[in-house]
Amino acid sequence: xxxxxLKANTTMLKDERITVKVDFYDKGSLLALSYKEGxxxxxxxxxxxxxxxxxxxxxxSGLSSIKCCLDEDLEPTCFERSNDIGGLWKFxxxxxxxxxxxxxxxxxxxxKEMSCYSDFPFQEDYPNFMKQEKFWDYLQEFAEHFDLLxxxxxxxxxxxxxxxxxxxETGQWDVVTETEGKLDRAIxxxxxxxxxxxxxxxxxxxxxPGIHKFKGQILHSQEYKIPAGFQDKRVLVIGLGNTGGDIAxxxxxxxxxxxxxxxxxxxxxxxxxxxGYPFNMMGTRRRHNFTAQVLPSxxxxxxxxxxxxKRFDHTNYGLNITKGKKPKIIVNDELPTCILCGTVTMKTxxxxxxxxxxxxxxxxxxxxxxxxxxxxxYTFSFxxxxxxxxSLCTKKIFLYKLVFPSNLERTTLAMIGFISLTGSILxxxxxxxxxxxxxxxxxxxxxxxxxxxxxxxxxxQLIERGLxxxxxxDKLDYISYMDDLAAxxxxxxxxxxxxxxxxxxxxxxxxxxxxxxQYRLMGPGKWDGARNAILTQWDRTLKPLKTRIVPDSSKPAxxxxxxxxxxxxxxxxxxxxxxxxxxxxxxxxxxxxxxNFSLLNKYLARINLLGYEGCTKSY
Length: 619
Ligand SMILES: Cc1cc2nc3c(=O)[nH]c(=O)nc-3n(C[C@H](O)[C@H](O)[C@H](O)COP(=O)(O)OP(=O)(O)OC[C@H]3O[C@@H](n4cnc5c(N)ncnc54)[C@H](O)[C@@H]3O)c2cc1C
Ligand SMILES: NC(=O)c1ccc[n+]([C@@H]2O[C@H](COP(=O)([O-])OP(=O)(O)OC[C@H]3O[C@@H](n4cnc5c(N)ncnc54)[C@H](OP(=O)(O)O)[C@@H]3O)[C@@H](O)[C@H]2O)c1
Fold this sequence. Notes:
alpha/beta; EC 1.-.-.-; 5-stranded parallel sheet; single chain; NADP binding; binds flavin-adenine dinucleotide
């Protein structure tokens, strides 16, 4: 038997005449060889083999990868180096293990309806934006609901992932793991790398002359957990991403002064938009993408900047984007107020450090700095891969749709979660995992590696020669990227068709927020609850806000409400008619204006009270 035939199940079926049936697997396909009555028969069934998939990491991406494997009848084994699920959402008091995790006060910046697994909405009473521990609870609920925990091997680090000698035929990988000092080795048909986009702290000390002379405390935001220890200190925060903004605001409450240094500046948006609705629900809509395609880019830019400067003028607050730099956006509700109150001072980039001070690009000097916190972001790497795959995977232009490395002749390695999006990373990684598992099964195809390599290499050369802009690190438009992947899977909502079949739903899909449920309406992985989830998404958004129910005459709720609303004026009119004669008699008798008003008020108050009590009972 040729060596490429890897597994063999032999069944001897004996009857009066001898029959032999041998099933064996070749490259993921089931081949059955049978011998009966002197005839040899070979049959071939595509994609019947349950493939073994290694999932590395049990964070947001790893959990969705395990579930997607199960949905496609694949056999996942997940290796997680820590002792729990959730990846960076699992808060720990210290960062001694070097794993990137959230700080204590972190609140999500994508609201719950926009950042949930597409067939598992948050419970309706969860807040729209939630503290990290609440988000972790959701991940735990997801893992328990779909029974994912039993597929995870905790405290197990993946040390190496290497191609098998027959990789070009089988696409298989040798995976070496380490659990509490013990090495193990196993063969997998496919690997999903879910080790996180924020694996290593980016600490660009070489860009800061004199930093080694600085005598104060230096740390990276990966080490930051709580504000204790920074009281009454003069703190310099370097780098204005979401982390820089959050840490500057938090420390401004206790530190003597917070200085926030930025090379670029940033647009700052708030979690609540006009009307108090979560900004993602208002801003991430198909109709906006449609308008953006139609409008000239200069008009679009002008209108966006006008909107962003509406709450406060970024130039006045020292936050405006430096000329020639790529604009960016952070979510922060308090930073403008801190700047307004002087507890955070905006600074340009640092030119040089001395033992105790920092000289800035604009020539200003800040003395007596106690602490420098680098909130300069993270890098990612794949220490367990071998070269040249290891280096190639860190260049995003060599990842087809940011998932499949271009140089592999077999598409059995998928990188999940190495994306920056203008929306939820969770939703993006889930769709990546849905696509990848279908590619593993051969149900979705990707172009051959020669073609992908040629295109990516050409792009790289053009960038090196300065003939093309390198946009690989830019945030991708959420809806465009999601639709692109969904089209590959066959699950992209067909909005025109939906308008014909189900106009109410189509209206919400096109004009309403582009929630992840939209990618479960049709095609493979269709979820029967998707329609209802879309039509009730605003209920779940408003539910956690309505914790104090008060009568609201401006929002009629039911027929009885209408009756009560109209009942009060009718009652008022009737009472006025009944009382008319005696009222005017009394008014005439007393003859004073003040008394007239007080009596009238007395009657009106009684009537109002009746109406008010009637309304209260309806709630
Ligand atoms: C501070 C911060 C706040 C964020 N806030 C938001 C937000 O509000 N909304 C949003 O959508 N996104 C947010 N993000 C983006 C965030 O990256 C995603 O939400 C999501 O957590 C990414 O999950 P992941 O599974 O890809 O990576 P991670 O959460 O980093 O998980 C990777 C897992 O892989 C494990 N691992 C790594 N290497 C190995 C190995 N060799 N062997 C075994 N296991 C390994 C790690 O232990 C970890 O558990 C935030 C990111 C950061 C840094
Ligand atoms: N609430 C939340 O949900 C929340 C909170 C925190 C983080 N996050 C997410 O976590 C991820 C990481 O965020 P992050 O803020 O840590 O990193 P980041 O988004 O990469 O921002 C790092 C910032 O550091 C500065 N910087 C980078 N390289 C530098 C260099 N060589 N010298 C000087 N400055 C440099 C840049 O700011 P300047 O150009 O301004 O200098 C850059 O914007 C993001 O996806 C973010 O959205 C979310």
